Amino acid sequence: MSKSIKKIGVMTSGGDAPGMNAAIRSVVRTCAFHNIECVGIYRGYEGMIEGDFKPMNARSVKGIINKGGTVLKSARSKTFMTKEGRKTAYQKLTEANIDALVTIGGDGTFTGAMVFNQEYDFPIMGIPGTIDNDIFGTSHTLGYDTALNTVVEAIDKIRDTASSHNRLFFIEVMGRDVGHIALNVGVGAGAEEILIPEEDLGLDRLLESLRRSKASGKSSSIVVVAEGDKIGKNVFELKDYVEEHMTEYEVRVSVLGHMQRGGSPSCFDRVLASRMGVKAVESLLENKTNFMVGLLHDKIALTPLDKAVKGKSEINMELLRVSDIMTT
Ligand code: F6P
């Protein structure tokens, strides 16, 4: 193991995700295991620029494996996008004798990390944490599994009221650019239709599908819509459109919003976070840098950060067909 890395900084950045705390815990304890100092950096790149650092030891992370959110707080930093901001960040890290970084976040976080590494040759490892699961090089990002379970539970509850009133519900779920959440919860909660950014179903086909559903004897329906869906209408416009063209339906909208990002992480996310934290620290100690730790075929694997950022995280199109068959 390298002698040069003696102190590692860990931070969370971008949208928080359940499992981030479990990853922080793992990074801190792996450092302790290898007798390396660890420093928590607060509010992502914002805190890095301000030098908002706190030494962490194995006991600082007790009782957080089951907590949602992030004890280190998070932010989407605009200042770090500037050269000046990154220069200040580098100065603060150097003053604090931090030799390497573990950044937990999504593609925005990794893009910042890559630029920083290019400019200052600073050793960095990324851990993917976002409920969207939109990162190439890992089958699962931290928080995704928990979010799926949270959303399915919410839809099950909406289903109760939808069927009591014979209503059609449009339910908007998170996923700016990808439909992983929508597609999986759609199948998991037995939605009649799933609208995702990867496929343009079209308004006519949506109406057709709803008519078929009604004709087959269904009295209530659930349509799951990813926030980045291709039809281009938001859930409220969809409601108006369907009500206008299908007077037989009473329609309601539910935007699940940020509740999808909260809650205690699932066992899957806790285990994944623990594995990823160990790998991130040990890879830095082996002098590896500019990689993201991911899960591929149930094995922890490294992907170069630029590939993780530029690559496309593909959704499982087979699920769309499964959904079609299930809604027969
Ligand atoms: O973290 C990903 C995500 O939750 C997206 O699904 C969503 O579009 C976005 O973050 C919301 O970001 P913010 O909390 O900054 O409004």
UniProtKB/TrEMBL annotation:
<feature type="binding site">
    <location>
        <begin position="76"/>
        <end position="77"/>
    </location>
    <ligand>
        <name>ATP</name>
    </ligand>
</feature>
<feature type="binding site">
    <location>
        <begin position="106"/>
        <end position="109"/>
    </location>
    <ligand>
        <name>ATP</name>
    </ligand>
</feature>
<feature type="binding site" description="in other chain">
    <location>
        <position position="159"/>
    </location>
    <ligand>
        <name>ADP</name>
    </ligand>
</feature>
<comment type="similarity">
    <text>Belongs to the phosphofructokinase type A (PFKA) family. ATP-dependent PFK group I subfamily. Prokaryotic clade 'B1' sub-subfamily.</text>
</comment>
<keyword id="KW-0479">Metal-binding</keyword>
<dbReference type="GO" id="GO:0070095">
    <property type="term" value="F:fructose-6-phosphate binding"/>
</dbReference>
<dbReference type="GO" id="GO:0042802">
    <property type="term" value="F:identical protein binding"/>
</dbReference>
<dbReference type="GO" id="GO:0016208">
    <property type="term" value="F:AMP binding"/>
</dbReference>
<feature type="binding site">
    <location>
        <position position="15"/>
    </location>
    <ligand>
        <name>ATP</name>
    </ligand>
</feature>
<dbReference type="InterPro" id="IPR015912">
    <property type="entry name" value="Phosphofructokinase_CS"/>
</dbReference>
<dbReference type="GO" id="GO:0005945">
    <property type="term" value="C:6-phosphofructokinase complex"/>
</dbReference>
<feature type="binding site" description="in other chain">
    <location>
        <begin position="130"/>
        <end position="132"/>
    </location>
    <ligand>
        <name>substrate</name>
    </ligand>
</feature>
<keyword id="KW-0460">Magnesium</keyword>
<keyword id="KW-0021">Allosteric enzyme</keyword>
<comment type="function">
    <text>Catalyzes the phosphorylation of D-fructose 6-phosphate to fructose 1,6-bisphosphate by ATP, the first committing step of glycolysis.</text>
</comment>
<feature type="binding site">
    <location>
        <position position="167"/>
    </location>
    <ligand>
        <name>substrate</name>
    </ligand>
</feature>
<feature type="binding site">
    <location>
        <position position="252"/>
    </location>
    <ligand>
        <name>substrate</name>
    </ligand>
</feature>
<keyword id="KW-0324">Glycolysis</keyword>
<keyword id="KW-0808">Transferase</keyword>
<dbReference type="GO" id="GO:0046872">
    <property type="term" value="F:metal ion binding"/>
</dbReference>
<keyword id="KW-0547">Nucleotide-binding</keyword>
<feature type="binding site" description="in other chain">
    <location>
        <position position="227"/>
    </location>
    <ligand>
        <name>substrate</name>
    </ligand>
</feature>
<feature type="domain" description="Phosphofructokinase">
    <location>
        <begin position="7"/>
        <end position="283"/>
    </location>
</feature>
<feature type="binding site" description="in other chain">
    <location>
        <begin position="190"/>
        <end position="192"/>
    </location>
    <ligand>
        <name>ADP</name>
    </ligand>
</feature>
<dbReference type="Pfam" id="PF00365">
    <property type="entry name" value="PFK"/>
</dbReference>
<feature type="binding site" description="in other chain">
    <location>
        <begin position="174"/>
        <end position="176"/>
    </location>
    <ligand>
        <name>substrate</name>
    </ligand>
</feature>
<keyword id="KW-0418">Kinase</keyword>
<dbReference type="InterPro" id="IPR000023">
    <property type="entry name" value="Phosphofructokinase_dom"/>
</dbReference>
<dbReference type="InterPro" id="IPR012828">
    <property type="entry name" value="PFKA_ATP_prok"/>
</dbReference>
<dbReference type="GO" id="GO:0003872">
    <property type="term" value="F:6-phosphofructokinase activity"/>
</dbReference>
<dbReference type="GO" id="GO:0030388">
    <property type="term" value="P:fructose 1,6-bisphosphate metabolic process"/>
</dbReference>
<feature type="binding site">
    <location>
        <position position="107"/>
    </location>
    <ligand>
        <name>Mg(2+)</name>
    </ligand>
</feature>
<dbReference type="GO" id="GO:0006002">
    <property type="term" value="P:fructose 6-phosphate metabolic process"/>
</dbReference>
<dbReference type="GO" id="GO:0005524">
    <property type="term" value="F:ATP binding"/>
</dbReference>
<dbReference type="InterPro" id="IPR012003">
    <property type="entry name" value="ATP_PFK_prok-type"/>
</dbReference>
<feature type="binding site" description="in other chain">
    <location>
        <begin position="258"/>
        <end position="261"/>
    </location>
    <ligand>
        <name>substrate</name>
    </ligand>
</feature>
<dbReference type="InterPro" id="IPR035966">
    <property type="entry name" value="PKF_sf"/>
</dbReference>
<feature type="active site" description="Proton acceptor">
    <location>
        <position position="132"/>
    </location>
</feature>
<dbReference type="GO" id="GO:0048029">
    <property type="term" value="F:monosaccharide binding"/>
</dbReference>
<keyword id="KW-0067">ATP-binding</keyword>
<comment type="pathway">
    <text>Carbohydrate degradation; glycolysis; D-glyceraldehyde 3-phosphate and glycerone phosphate from D-glucose: step 3/4.</text>
</comment>
<feature type="binding site">
    <location>
        <begin position="25"/>
        <end position="29"/>
    </location>
    <ligand>
        <name>ADP</name>
    </ligand>
</feature>
